[in-house]
Structure formats: C-alpha cells, structure tokens
Write a structure and sequence with these properties.
The chain is built from 8 helices and 5 strands; from the N terminus they run ααβααβααβαββα. By secondary structure, it is of the alpha+beta class. The protein has one domain: 3-Layer(aba) Sandwich (NADH Oxidase). Strands 1, 2, 3, 4 and 5 form a 5-stranded antiparallel β-sheet that branches. It is globular.
Length: 223
C-alpha cells in the first residue's frame, strides 16, 4: 500500500468529485478497494447497528448495464437541472463566477455520464430497511441516512489517499429497481444510496474547490 503524502487537512480539502480525470484504461487492484472499505466501515453508525452493505462492481457486463441505466437517469436529470439553473441565474446572490460554476460542473458531469460504462470499478453503498425511511418522519430518515453516508464518504477519502478518484452520484436511482435487478439486490428490503465510480486518477494534484464564503452561510447561536 502506497499512500499519497497528504496531511489530514489536505486530504479533506482535496478529495474532489473526479470525473474527467478518471483513468478508464487502468484496472483498480481489488486489494485497494478492500483496503478502502476496511477503513469505511470504521465510520460511525447509529446504535452501532451496521446495517450497511457495499457492492463492489468490477464485472464488465454489470458495469455496462449500470452505465446504460445511468444515462437514462441523466436524461431526466438534465431536464430538471435546466429549470433549476434558470432560477439560480435570476437570484441576486448569484455573481458571474457563481453562475459560471454550474456550467463547468454540468460539462464535467455530462462527460461522466457518457463514459460511465468505461469505469473500472463502481461502489454501490446500500442499507437494509426500506420501510425505515419510506414515509417516515425526518428524524427517522436522518438517522438512517446518517448511519450509511459517513461510511461512503470515508471510502472516498481512503480512495483519494491511495491515488484513486471517485465521484458521488445518485442519477441511477431514477431507475433504482432496474439497477437492483442487475445486481441481485432485494429491492423491497435494501435501499441503494449512490453509485460511486472508482478509478486511478490522471495525476494526483487536486486543489480545494471554490466555495461560497463561510460568512455567507455561517449562523452563530441563531439564524
């Protein structure tokens, strides 16, 4: 195992959503994926229930099928986002720089949608308990998601430390049941949280991303 020379702060601030810099030509070593997951399952989980499950997908036929499902979801998503971006552009808070950023992200995301079927590996984080979130109060849903998503983020951090890139995506969930059929997931009981493409990166020099100034979003003691 070779780790990049990153401080904890550098790891946290340079773990990006990698799309155009995923290396589709290079396989990801199974032992690297397992190392990342060994770290991921040290994440906190409500009541230490550990109801999470993780599907690592490296079979080319399954990746091709999930890539097609993702593209179908992307067609729906882009229609919704066009309306969202139009509303954002009219907001007084949107400076020219902020308006330009969604366009850059959309270009990168479109590239990933076109090439999703080429990625060497995917991670599908899942959790038992569809009945625990469907139609349940916000408190119950927050606890359920909060017991799964930290582990998925820990996986992405561990991947970054090992020279791998990943990207949190949820577009395939427009067709979650179809994806469940591809992977043999018991849809009635198990919820998919994301589809995370994983690959070695083209270069390892990632920088912190542009963010809204902290003072614009920080509320101290009261709103």
């Amino acid at each position: 195992m070779t780790l990049l020379n990153l401080t904890p702060d550098e790891l946290l601030t340079t773990t990006r959503s990698v799309r155009k810099r995923l290396d589709f030509s290079r396989p990801v070593e199974p032992e690297l994926l397992r190392e990342c997951l060994e770290i991921a399952v040290q994440a906190p989980t409500g009541g230490n229930r550990q109801t999470w499950h993780f599907i690592l997908v490296t079979d080319r036929q399954n990746i091709q099928a999930l890539g097609e499902i993702y593209r179908k979801g992307w067609a729906i998503y882009t229609q919704v986002q066009q309306q969202t971006y139009a509303k954002l552009a009219q907001s007084k808070r949107m400076t020219p720089d902020r308006i330009a950023t969604p366009g850059k992200v959309a270009d990168s995301a479109n590239y990933l949608a076109e090439h999703m079927h080429e990625v060497p590996a995917m991670l599908i984080p899942c959790g038992f308990g569809r009945a625990d979130i469907d139609g349940q109060p916000a408190a119950a849903q927050a606890g359920w998601w909060g017991s799964l998503l930290p582990a998925a983020w820990s996986f992405m951090l561990a991947a970054r430390a090992r020279g791998l890139g990943a990207c949190w995506t949820t577009i395939h969930l427009y067709y979650e049941q179809e994806a469940a059929q591809v992977l043999g997931i018991p849809y009635e009981k198990v919820v998919q949280a994301a589809l995370i493409p994983v690959a070695h990166t083209l270069g390892t020099d990632f920088k912190p991303g542009a963010r809204v100034p902290l003072d614009d979003i920080l509320h101290w003691d009261t709103w």
